[in-house]
What does this fold into?
Amino acid sequence: MTHATTPASAAVELDGKDLPAHCPNPAMTLWSSHPRVFLEFNKDGIAKCPYCGTAYKMKPGAVVAHH
It folds into this structure.
């Protein structure tokens, strides 16, 4: 099974309140779900799910609270 790559422009945008980020996200249908994985963002603010390949990025101007 192959997964198409998702360009960063088509990535799911997240805000600071959406963290910690995980996939599958609430908008995904149950039949296509996989085990929940928490995502780590790279230095460009992009994360990619290792199961389904969905790309996630932080919204411009998003405020990330520090723990």
In short: The beta strands are 12-14, 22-23, 37-38, 46-48, 55-58. The radius of gyration is 12 Å. The first strand starts at residue 12 and ends at 14.
